[in-house]
TrEMBL record:
Name of this protein: Protein HflK
Species per Swiss-Prot/TrEMBL record: Teretinema zuelzerae
SMART domains per the UniProt record, alphabetical: PHB (SM00244)
Subunit-level organization: HflC and HflK may interact to form a multimeric complex.
Swiss-Prot/TrEMBL keywords: Hydrolase, Membrane, Protease, Transmembrane, Transmembrane helix
């Protein structure tokens, strides 16, 4: 037999040699032999097995009661351990006993509650900042809900303005969020903000809404929408309201652009005029201050000189009166005359003419 198998074994000849067919036939014969052995075992092998006897031999030394007790103990231990739960960072947990809230505000970490069906735990992410956009299609909406339509508000002067905005909010009270409101949070935020925006726009003029009132509108919308959410005890807190775009309807866009351009031109002209004024006023104020100081100095100087002249005249008058009483007043008058001439004559051109009576050529003295 062995010799026959060796003869039928694959030959190291080339693939096209006749021995390849003999090798393939031998392989098929081996596979058939293995399958026949497996089939025979399946038919007769299990008849020789006795599972009950094998189990008794393996566990016969154990007490059945002890086995049952150990099994129930293990199951009870697993049941007790199932009450352990984990609260992730940024989450808060709420424990309920038969549906009634018995504990809330549970922070991150490992905690324990009574296993099911006695107690149940609800976890809410209170740190996540969620975003709801109105009139803008964002990735957050994909698979969740369609992008909300833009808001059309009626202004106080009966104009229509389209509003697009983005609202950021978070869950601040897990108990209120879980049990007080049936709406999904983005729906509640959407409706509250729409109500607040419509109400506020009705108290403003269209020019203010499109220009200077953006920050005021954002602040007022956040406050009024939050008051409405608190009234419903929704457990939601609005973090920010961002007016992404305020614009008139398409039919009136060109007219509003013209008005806006005119307003910008006006502001520019006013700024230029104020700059021109600021360039003139400070120098003029400085010049006026300088002239005022010079006038004050001149006033003080004239006053002091006048006072000095008055004192000097008073002294001369006193001397004159004294001289008039004791002697003739001509002496004093003569002295005053001489002193005055001494002051005046140095500044006067003097021409000395001979007294011979001859003619004098005045051109020599610079006269015509």
């Amino acid at each position: 037999m062995s010799k026959k198998k060796r003869d039928e074994s694959p030959s190291p000849s080339l693939p096209d040699s006749p021995g390849r067919e003999e090798s393939f036939s031998g392989l098929i014969a081996k596979v058939k032999s293995v399958l026949t052995s497996i089939s025979s075992f399946l038919k007769t092998g299990f008849r020789n097995l006795n599972l009950r006897e094998d189990l008794l031999k393996a566990f016969g030394h154990l007490s059945p009661r002890r086995v049952v007790v150990s099994l129930f103990t293990a199951l009870f231990g697993l049941y007790v351990v199932s009450g352990v739960y984990l609260v992730n960072p940024g989450e808060q947990a709420v424990e309920r006993l038969f549906g009634k809230v018995v504990r809330s505000g549970i922070g991150e970490g490992l905690h324990y509650r009574m296993p099911w069906p006695f107690q149940k735990v609800d976890k809410v992410n209170t740190a996540e900042i969620r975003r709801e956009s109105i009139g803008i299609d964002h990735k957050e909406h994909a698979g969740l809900h369609t992008a909300p339509e833009k808001i059309q508000v009626l202004t106080g002067d009966e104009n229509i303005v389209d509003v697009e905005m983005i609202i950021q909010y978070r869950i601040s009270d897990p108990v209120q969020y879980l049990f007080n409101v049936d709406y999904r949070p983005f729906q509640l935020i959407n409706e509250a903000v729409r109500f607040a925006a419509t109400r506020i726009a009705g108290s403003l003029k269209v020019d203010d809404i499109l220009t200077v009132a953006k920050e005021d509108i954002q602040k007022r919308v956040r406050i009024e929408a939050q008051e409405l959410l608190d009234k419903y005890q929704s457990g939601l807190t609005i973090v920010t309201v961002n007016l992404n775009k305020l614009y008139p309807p398409d039919e009136l866009a060109e007219s509003f652009q013209d008005v806006g351009s005119a307003r910008e031109d006006k502001s520019r002209e006013i700024s230029q005029a104020e700059g021109y004024r600021n360039g003139l006023i400070p120098p003029a104020q400085g010049e006026a201050e300088k002239n005022l100081r010079e006038a004050e100095g001149y006033s003080i100087d004239v006053t002091n000189r006048a006072q000095g002249e008055a004192q000097r005249f008073g002294q001369m008058l006193k001397e004159y009166r004294t001289a008039s009483i004791g002697a003739s007043g001509d002496v004093t008058r003569q002295r005053l005359y001489i002193e005055t001439m001494e002051k005046v004559m140095p500044n006067v051109k003097k021409y000395i003419v001979s007294g011979t009576g001859g003619k004098v050529n005045l051109r020599l003295f610079g006269t015509e």
